Amino acid sequence: MNNILINDTTLRDGEQAAGVAFTLAEKTAIASLLNSMGVQEIEVGIPAMGKVEQEAIAHLVHQNFKADLISWNRAVISDIVASLACGMKRVHISIPVSQIQIDVKFQGQVSLMLNKLRDTINFAKDHGLFVALGGEDASRADQAFLLDVVLAAQEWGVSRFRYCDTVGILDPFTTYERVSHLVQSLPIPVEMHTHNDFGLATANALAGIKAGASAVNTTVNGLGERAGNAALEEIVMALKQIYGIKLGIDTSRLTELSRLVVMASGGHLPPWKAIVGENAFTHESGIHTAGVLKNPNTYEPFAPEIVGSQRRLLAGKHSGRHLLKEILASQGIFLDQEELRSLLESVRHFSSQVKRNLTSEELLKLASHFVNQKEINYAN
Fold first, then answer.
1. DSSP-assigned letters across all residues of 67-112
2. Is 309 within a domain?
3. What does pLDDT average to in each consecutive run of 10 residues of the chain (380 residues)?
4. What is the pTM of this model?
5. Domain co-membership, 338 together with 248
6. Residue 272, domain member (yes or no)
């Protein structure tokens, strides 16, 4: 599982999410941050979409990033011509491999599909391009037929194969079984491309890597069509923390990258989103906060600083006295056990009424009653 290549497709498959359209400045900012973080390959878009897309892709090519840039293409020679016009050196060619997709896009004519694929690969190779092949809907394809297609494509000059779970119907066990067979049967590397329709995109991508795939397609925040794709931050951190694989990616900027894509996409990131969500390192429950105050490892799988985040301890319905004491002490306020108990009852009641955590100001306002009472008693 070493030397895993991350191919991020936020600018292509991520932007295909309904309602998302990045500006040139946003595309440049996202690509620049991905590059500076150490992501090895960036899928920059679809040149065949037209002039505006081509200008954006050409602009990214001229940034001279360290990361390799690759464009997405159909098995159509004019698509490759458009990629060449943008200055691309690497192209990804997608071809439908399930019967349902072949029926819709090639009227069920397998020979027509294969001929177009062969001609497109030959054209790309004649122009000195690195060519990767994507098997659209590979998870619903006849697996023997799929293998035959990829072996033929490899003979024509393809250097990598992307196994696409286009509608997200795989589970990790089936993924492992199928990808293991592919890896053992193919002379070229296998790349995972998983969708999240059943919430299994990250799990399936990791299963594929465990089975021998040496590349994985990701998007920031899991942005993508329908339910999205395997999230870059989840894949990178799982490989780093669970499997101990160092990808050379600066994970301390993952939260920054996440916020950038949220802003550019106009979307909303759930606070409980893994790795980069607002609540990923936020604790309210009395048991949890008491443990974290003594040793953060009790309820955190890794330190928030590793992904550029911060730990937050919030007062709310489920809080305990340990947390209130800690927060108040940081403000120079010290209450005895009975006062803390009474304050905790007030905090829980207030939180239940407003259906959220308390702000620092709200907590201090509740605590001020006990502070003022102390001052009155001292005066007497």
1. SEEEEEEES-HHHHHHHHHTT-SEEEEEEE-SHHHHHHHHTT-HHH
2. yes
3. 92 96 98 98 98 97 97 98 98 97 95 97 98 98 97 98 98 98 98 98 98 98 97 98 95 98 95 96 82 89 96 82 81 85 84 86 83 49
4. 0.90
5. no
6. no
